[in-house]
Amino acid sequence: MTDGNPVRLAVLVSGNGTNLQAVIDRIASGGINATIACVISNRHDAFALKRAEKHNIPAIIHESGAYANRREYDAVLVDMLRDRGVELVVLAGFMRILTDVMVTAFPHAIMNIHPALLPAFPGLHAQKQALDYGVRFTGCTVHFVDGGTDTGPILLQAVVPVLEDDTEEKLAARIQHEEHRIYPEAIRLFCAGKFCVDGRRVRLSP
C-alpha cells in the first residue's frame, strides 16, 4: 500500500483486546498510515468492543449461532468487510478458525499473532507447550493467515527467554509485551507496502 491514503483495517476480536489497544495507540500517534474501519467480535461480551467504542470506532457483534456452519459465517463476514472497504484484516485474539471463504477473499491480507516462535508450538496453549517442552527461548510471531493452523508466511518474530521460575501466566505476560511491540510494527510495514511474499518467505523491500 503506497498511494499515501490510509489503509482501511478491520480488527477481529473475542476477548480483552490488548493488541487492539496497541494498534489504536500506534495509529493515534501517527506511527501507522491506517484507519480502523471497524472492530468485529464473535462475542457480545468482549471487552475489546468497549475499547473500540471509547475511540469512536464502529463496533460490530457477529456471533455464530445464527449460521449453519463456519463457511456461512465467514461469507457474511466477508460481505461486512467488503462493504466497509477493508484492505487488511487483523486478528487480535479472534477465537475462530477462518475458512477458505475468508482466506480466498483476502489473500496475504489477513494477519495473526501467535504467542510462540512458529513453527514451534502452534495451536492453543502455546506458552504451556513451551514450558512443558523445556525450551530456553520462546516468543511471538506475526504471520499471514493461510488454510492451516498458524502455518502462514511469517512477517515478524520476537524472542522471549524462558526463566527458571516461569509459570504459564508469567511467561504469557512477557510474551504479550513483545506482541504489543511487533504487531503494530508489522501492520505499519504492510501499510507502507514493505512486504513482498515469495512462496513461504516474506521479504522486506527497501
Automatic annotation (TrEMBL):
Residue ranges of the TM segments: none
Site location (Raises pKa of active site His): 150
Biological or metabolic pathway of the protein: Purine metabolism; IMP biosynthesis via de novo pathway; N(2)-formyl-N(1)-(5-phospho-D-ribosyl)glycinamide from N(1)-(5-phospho-D-ribosyl)glycinamide (10-formyl THF route): step 1/1
One Gene Ontology term of the molecular function aspect: phosphoribosylglycinamide formyltransferase activity
Binding-site positions, (6R)-10-formyltetrahydrofolate: 70, 95-98, 112
SUPFAM superfamilies listed in its UniProt record: Formyltransferase
InterPro entries attached to this UniProt entry: Formyl_transf_N (IPR002376), Formyl_transf_N_sf (IPR036477), GART (IPR004607)
Assigned EC number: 2.1.2.2
GO terms under biological process: 'de novo' IMP biosynthetic process
GO CC field: cytosol
Residues at which N(1)-(5-phospho-beta-D-ribosyl)glycinamide binds: 17-19
Keywords: Purine biosynthesis, Transferase
Reactions the enzyme catalyzes: N(1)-(5-phospho-beta-D-ribosyl)glycinamide + (6R)-10-formyltetrahydrofolate = N(2)-formyl-N(1)-(5-phospho-beta-D-ribosyl)glycinamide + (6S)-5,6,7,8-tetrahydrofolate + H(+)
Catalytic residue positions: 114
Lineage: superkingdom: Bacteria
Occurrences of domain Formyl transferase N-terminal (ranges): 8-187
Assigned protein family: Belongs to the GART family.
Purpose of the protein: Catalyzes the transfer of a formyl group from 10-formyltetrahydrofolate to 5-phospho-ribosyl-glycinamide (GAR), producing 5-phospho-ribosyl-N-formylglycinamide (FGAR) and tetrahydrofolate.
Protein name, per record: Phosphoribosylglycinamide formyltransferase
Species of provenance: Oryzomonas japonica
Classification of source organism: Bacteria, Pseudomonadati, Thermodesulfobacteriota, Desulfuromonadia, Geobacterales
